[in-house]
Queue: 2 jobs
Job 1
Amino acid sequence: MLPLSAVERTLLVPLMARAWGARWQLVDEPDPCADRVLQRLGCRMPDWPDLVTWSLILWRTAWFRRWAREFFARHPGAQGLNLGAGLSDYFQWLQTSTRHWVDADLQRVMQLREHCLPARRGARGLSMDVCTDEWWGCLRRGRTGAEQPCWIMLEGVLMYWTPGQVADFLHSVGEHVPHGSSVAFDVIPHWMVGHPIRVTHAQGDAARFQWGIRSLDDLAHVHPRLHLDTAVHPPTPWSLTPWRTAGWDPLSPYALVRMTVL
Ligand SMILES: C[S@@+](CC[C@H](N)C(=O)[O-])C[C@H]1O[C@@H](n2cnc3c(N)ncnc32)[C@H](O)[C@@H]1O
């Protein structure tokens, strides 16, 4: 139905979760845009919601929003970057009269964004493959002045890249991104690599997870300027068991991490 690749179509999963969260008033801060976007796309919600995945997405959305607000409280004039933004609209929650925000994704997704989402003052869209060496240059093009810290988020994105692509991306963050910036993303454990993601309503191939970690130590040495400052796990029934070790629950399917650029 949508002229998108399998990985691009995964954007429907968080979109449906947020529409469902808003419709059923399951979250403190609903996403009123998500439902409208689904309608514009002509997508129906499935009769049986994927409760586990959708609850995880609502949980992570609340954390990304909370971390972004903490960051902007320290750096009110900073720029926010949502890389692999899909059809999410974080600026509806973070907009101020002076803030600048960029939503970036692959070209066809950005065309859909233009069709489905309202333009917001202070926000712009950018068609960009974040796996290329030029991603940072594309973002900075035309911008002058002192290098301010920025907020960078990649939500539900890195697990679809190869380990080499993730390593290159994190390395380039360490090389280029200004001191004091924050980079937040979600991670899956290595045993989920290869798992197919079939998107409701979509036909064709399934996207597959390609990158996962064995422990948070995998992120400790990605670049000397990148410091892992926080990791959070969703609540699980086994969170209190002895298997849980040093900040990484090997049975948890999921974690969010935040890194600071030194
Ligand atoms: C699971 S969706 C998440 C969308 C959004 N972050 C959200 O949470 O609603 C993954 C998104 O990453 C985008 N993506 C994957 N690889 C990308 C790349 N190399 N450059 C830019 N965007 C990419 C896809 O097009 C898709 O929109």
Job 2
Amino acid sequence: MAHIVVLGAGLGGSIQAYELRETLTSNDKITVISNKSYFQFTPSNPWAGVGWRKQKDITVEMGPVMKRRGIEFIHDGATKLDPESNTITCESGREVTYDYLVIATGPDLAFDEIEGFGPDKFTESVCHIEHAVKSGDKWEDFCANPGPIVIGAVQGASCFGPAYEYIMTIETDLRRRKIRDKVPMTFVTSEPYIGHLGLGGVGDTKGMLESIFRDRDIKWITNSKVEKFEEHTLHCTEFNADGSEKVKHELPFDYSMMLPAFRGIPALMGIEGLVNPRGFVIVDDYQRNPKYQNIFGVGVAIAIAPPVITPVPTGVPKTGFMIESMVTATAHNIPLIIKGEEPDEKPTWNAFCLADFGDRGMAFLAMPQNPPRNLNWNSQGRWVHWAKLVFEWYFIRKVKKGVSEPWYEKFIMKMLNIDKLKSNT
Ligand SMILES: Cc1cc2nc3c(=O)[nH]c(=O)nc-3n(C[C@H](O)[C@H](O)[C@H](O)COP(=O)(O)OP(=O)(O)OC[C@H]3O[C@@H](n4cnc5c(N)ncnc54)[C@H](O)[C@@H]3O)c2cc1C
């Protein structure tokens, strides 16, 4: 019998536990440890940020679901990992030992790296549901007394999609309230151009997103490094392509949300050979850490080098579909290793994304995620908004039911030949 611990119960960790339940034997024990008692469907957080979703709509209490699936669920935060003794120490003082560990702890949000930044200071956040709900409340106050808005992503950010989604959703909401004319909007980003997305662009995402911004009267500043936030002012410097300083900006705002840089959680920081200097888990082609071969990493918690160096640092996004491919490979490889065989499934890390704009949206597929690619595809329209609603319904339902692949997912995957996109073998 082997004991497998999954650390984190977000988008990656929850389905990792379900998939492992199906690939391991009933003698093997699975434990999930999470610092939150619930799963949150993070992709819907931008909607919560304008009050279109409440916390209860997009969260699922994990204890009862895990129990039904025969998985132990421990609601406790990990404070220390000792990979030499295979031991996790938790906030409560509890120690949990494992034979195999899957780290799925997502990002630690590095708001503290910029003065005045974050939901405890002068800007809003949609990264966690608790932040997004607070932003949604603030949004109502703002709409009663509108002014300039600044949305975007700071230096070192890797997750740009939600910044585009949030500014577009906000723009849609303002038009519906008929106060769009009272709100000058600026998108400020560390990306070298609009639509770069940390991926070097996907097909013509540059042209499409610039065109949508022009159409919706949204100004933009790229290659931006934020110096500090004051209560109603963002101070940033715009850089040229050669890295030289172009111009300094002082942008007034009455409402601002900027995506922060991510890093690994404190419990992992500084573990030589396990994580990189930012605390992200180093993995090989099989999602396994090369030094501690009984440790795997999935989701935002893993290290992926940026495909291109940009004048202002940017990272690579780890999106839902990529994460599912990491989870599937890990669920396949751990049982093989337990049997004494070699792992043989490689995740594709293909990026498929639905970016919602509140009433329509943009979809893109990058295969593989880093250029040059075998396939670049993107499209836009109302269908993306509807597809995102279906995706939200289906994913939350899947987590609630505790199944890794419900019948309708199997059916859709077969129809669209999606298995090919998930697996490399
Ligand atoms: C606002 C936003 C919107 C996004 N929208 C999309 C989208 O539309 N499409 C898409 O493909 N991708 C999207 N992403 C990217 C990505 O899919 C999500 O970030 C996704 O939630 C990442 O999954 P994860 O499992 O790696 O991390 P998370 O879902 O963040 O899960 C991490 C888990 O670890 C737990 N944890 C953290 N620290 C500890 C600790 N010390 N001890 C124990 N547990 C801990 C957390 O409570 C959580 O359960 C979005 C990201 C953000 C931030």
